[in-house]
Amino acid sequence: MRLLNRVLVDILSTTVSDFWNTGLSKNMEVLLSSDKIADCITALADEIVLKTSKGDKIAVIGIRSRGEILAKRISDILSKKLKTKIPCGTLDITLYRDDINNPHGDSQPIVRSTEIGFDIDDKIIILVDDVLYTGRSIRAAMDALIDLGRPKAIRLAVLVERAGRELPIAADFAGLKIDLPAEKNVQVNFVESDGKDRVIAI
Amino acid sequence: MNKKQIIWKHKHLIGLRDFSREEIEYILDTAHGFEEVSTRNIKKAPTLRGKVVVNLFFEDSTRTRNSFTLAANRLSADVIEFTEKVSSTSKGETLLDTARNLEAMGIDIVVIRHSAGGAPKFLSRNINACVVNAGDGCCEHPTQGLLDVYTIRKIKDSLEGLKIAIVGDIAHSRVARSDIYAMTKLGAEVILVGPPTLMPAKVEQLPVKVSYSLDDVIGQLDVINMLRIQFERMGVNPFPSVKEYSHYFGLTVDRMKKAKKDILVMHPGPINRGLEMESEVADGPNSVILRQVTNGLAVRMAVLFLVNQGAMMQDKKERLEGQ
Amino acid sequence: MSKSLLIKNGFVIDPANKINGKVNVYAIDGKIADVGKIDKQADTVIDAAGKLVVPGLIDIHVHFREPGDEEEETIASGSAAAVAGGFTSVVCMPNTEPAIDEATSVEYIHRMGRQTRKTHVYVMGAITKGRAGEQLAEMGFMVQAGAIGFTDDGSGVQNPAMMLRALKYASMFKNIVISQHCQDNSLAGTGVMNSGYNSTILGLPGIDPLAEEMMLWRDIQLVRKTNMRYHVQHVSTARSVELIRQAKKEGLPITCEVAPHHLLLTDDACCDYDTNYKVNPPLRTEADIKAIKQAIKDGIIDALASDHAPHLKSEKELEFLAAPFGIASLECALGLYIKALIEPKIIDWPQLVSIMAEKPAKIISVDKGTLGKGKQADITIIDPDYEYTVDVNKFHSKSKNCPYNGWKLKGKVEYTIVGGEIRYSAQEN
Predict the structure, then answer these.
(1) What is the pLDDT of residues B58-69, one digit of tens each?
(2) What angle do CA C376, C378, C379 make, to 5 degrees?
(3) DSSP bridge pairs for B140
(4) Topology of domain B143-292, per CATH?
(5) For the structural domain made of B16-141+295-322, what CATH number should be given?
(6) pLDDT tens digit string along C43-80?
(7) Which residues of chain C have pLDDT under 70?
(8) CATH superfamily of C55-363
(9) Residues C62, C157: Cα–Cα separation, whole Å
(10) Active-site residue among C307, C348, C383, C385?
(11) Which among C79, C256, C281, C420 could bridge C377 via Cys, Cβ 3.0 to 4.6 Å?
(12) DSSP-derived secondary structure for C43-75
């Protein structure tokens, strides 16, 4: 059931966010406001810089679709802080999902393109997603990354780290850490995709 | 790429005539996502791991078969190549026997090429596995139609309002039929060009224009698709000589001078050089023939992926109805 | 010792004798003795209240596959199907394996028919040896053996000189008809369905209507020259109908027949590649059906004939391109004609009986098709309003290649009486 919720978040994010833009619900809880999100992202970038040694080649790769936006923001900040252009790419994990042959609900995964315009070999890859929950998306993302090359290391950065891991996976950098009942969904909205920045629990 | 979410329910790909514009666009959008797989070092994704694809080819076609095999391999499916001769009478093993035998081995997707129009549909009615048409007689060659429009859309962004000529043996061409459905559904205007003896019956009832003169139309075209002249399919000579055919319908360097500068030259392959088109044109700057081949791989990966998704949707529906 | 039969209270339709009303039919020793307001004691009495009593129906175009393909049909199974369909006489086509092209084969068919004791079985011999279109078959000997006509059915005689010779030669025999499956092979090519929009869409080779019309036109010229009696089998196109109309107007000795599928189905039916719709001549278009129905209304069509063509399931379970041509419809033919012609009021019952009994008898020159005094007592009793569902599994025929399976049809055969003997009764089946 938890897995199902996680998948629904992935798949239905567009529809759900449309719904939330049009009205408010009683059992909706704002976890992060727009300002807080900006703070979190800056903090994430700071921490990444802190943990980076001189000579490390860093690249940021976001998981479609919210991770892609987050990755873009983080790489922009990193580029400024490190005074060098930090490459940024997008990873589509659909082909690697473990539920690809076991669809849920009435929805289907959509295959989009992976767009990584640089060589990942020997780089430290900052893998970015909006929410870490079961860990299954990250498992898929790591498999996808390994098929693209051999990075020196993969580090995981997420905006929200939610308890409920089903795989031995942990975030290296996390904005908000939270524990929610299983029936709740965490929804991340960004200006680029949804018109406003906020993180809510439904 | 802007992508509309639809629920893909088809477990077979029999013909493009059955599909809506939205469905065709959805396949093309999906194919776009698969292009990247072929550009990497490790050209493989685990998507169809544990699935078995059978290439059931009753006609020789090295290209299409290889393309499907590679597409299946890149999605980690196991591929069985089936090339045995099958009887077309009821004496001996029939197509149905063959398919049922394969199914008993637990296959998931049948890719079929057959000289009889309707063979894939016949198969889809009689077995549970997904059926993908890799060309049936003079009926359809849907993956070729898809890769053709995919190639055009990639370069021209949209087919809306484009003028596209399909030149050659329309009567016996499954490529022409699949192209006509896909191109017109995506908004292009299709002109069939060839001698009247190579036009199918009641061609006027198709959503196309017909011209018997390549010279008359070449100046207005955005895309020209030169079909292969298939002598083995024609029985009696529908034109007096190859020389005369080339004179009227061959794509020569001279004729290309009358075409738009950015015209796309296509051919489903393999080319009869010097017959349908001169080598200089086939290898020239307007030719997208090899890009068609490359794109074919992404399109076929998308098709295998989608029919498998469709099968799962239908299995699930049946399970729910069974409860 | 004489045997008698009385059919009372029925509605008798006998177009030849202009009877169309509630009368009784009395037969003795297999012959019609009286038709009228009679009431006599009889060995067998049938109460036909609410039923139609008509001259035994005649199907002049069936394929019983014997000799050669007994797994598809035999004279015995075909005859059982015939009486179940209300037919007291049938004409077997010679395209068996080997072809019926000499006297012994003709005698064999007759003998098997007699032994089965169901329907009268007549035979058309082949025009040419082995139906190869090259040498005349021994028509004379076949006439002596009882053949009622000649045809190379399954294909037409392609060579015009050959056809001219056949018509000329046959004209020396009395009461013989030359019958043709009009199809020019050079135009038909490898076609498997009507040539048109649907064949283009389905990617299947088409048979141009011209293939039929060209040979028909050619044969009309030959008939004009020879004045030999000539019959056109299974007319399928509007233009063919026109050609026949003109030829008849001219007074040429031409007759023709129509099959039920050419009244009810169009080439749209092929769109699912269901081989049960693969038939030759192929299913045509709405316009053709309209023209044929009009011709029936105008009296241009002389006979309805099922072209009952049984095939095994395994043979029809093939690709459309590879499956054999043919539809098995003998047992539901009457219902199909009612659906096509009576229900839409194209013709009335006396007209239907005329082209199912009276006129077919004339084409094959047998003294049947009426309930006239002294005629053989071949009688069909029909419940015209009884509706039933076609179920191929209940067919007496060995083959089930019938696209009408599951159709609801009206017109149930209650009794089929041949020579005064009840050979089929619905109660026992």
Answers:
(1) 888 889 999 999
(2) 140
(3) B136
(4) Rossmann fold (3.40.50)
(5) 3.40.50.1370
(6) 999 999 999 999 999 999 999 999 999 999 999 999 99
(7) 1
(8) Metal-dependent hydrolases (3.20.20.140)
(9) 19
(10) C307
(11) C420
(12) SEEEE-TT-EEEEPEEEEEE---TTT-TTT--H
Chain C residue at shortest CA distance from B178: C201
Is C321–B138 a contact, with Cβ atoms under 8 angstroms apart?
no
User: Which residues are registered as beta bridge partners of B287?
Assistant: B265
Is residue B301 within 8 Å of residue B71, measured between CB atoms? Answer: yes
Mark yes or no for CB contact C319/B122 under 8 Å: yes
What pTM did the predictor assign? 0.89
Domain ranges in chain A are 2-201
Q: Which residues of A touch B5 (CB under 8 A)?
A: 14, 110
SS3 content of chain A, % helix, strand, coil (to 5): 35, 25, 40
How many angstroms separate the CA atoms of A189 and A180, rounded? Answer: 18
- Whether residues B177 and C272 touch (CB distance < 8 A) is answered with no
The answer to whether the CB atoms of A92 and B47 lie below 8 A apart is no
Element (DSSP H or E) covering residue B180:
helix B174-185
> Could you read off the pLDDT of A144-186 as tens digits, one per residue?
999 999 999 999 999 999 999 999 999 999 999 999 999 999 9
CB pair distance less than 8 Å for B45 and A114: no
Residues in a beta bridge with C415: C381, C425
ipTM entry: 0.91
Q: How far apart are CA B164 and CA C184, in angstroms?
A: 38
Which residues of B make CB contacts under 8 Å with A?
1, 3, 5, 7-8, 29-30, 32-37, 40-42, 44-47, 50-51, 75, 302, 305, 308-309, 312-313, 316
What does CATH list as the number for A2-201?
Answer: 3.40.50.2020
Q: How far is B182 from chain A (nearest CA, A)?
A: 21
**What tokens does B281 get?**
């044109």
Give the residue extent of every domain in chain C: 4-52+376-397+404-428, 55-363
Q: Determine if the peptide bond prior to A65 is cis (ω within 30°).
A: yes
A12 touches chain B (CB under 8 A): no
CA torsion, points B34, B113, B229, B152, in degrees to nearest 10? -20
Say if residues C363 and C177 touch (Cβ distance below 8 Å): yes
Using CA coordinates, name the residue in chain A closest to B316.
A103
| Calpha distance B122→B132 (Å, rounded) | 12
Instruction: Give the model confidence (pLDDT) of C261-307 as tens digits.
Output: 999 999 999 999 999 999 999 999 999 999 999 999 999 999 999 99
The two structure tokens encoding residue B40: 């990497």
Q: Is C307 among the residues known to form the active site?
A: yes
Segment (H or E) for B136: strand B130-136
Which string of DSSP letters, residue by residue, matches A74-143?
HHHHHHHHHTS---EEEE--GGG-TTTTS--TT--PPP---B--S--TT-EEEEEEEEESSSHHHHHHHH
Give the nearest partner residue to C317 out of B96, B201, B205, using CB atoms. Answer: B96
B/A touch flag: 3 or more CB pairs below 8 Å? yes
Q: What are the phi and psi torsion angles at C45 (to 5°)?
A: -120, 130
The CATH code that applies to domain C4-52+376-397+404-428 is 2.30.40.10
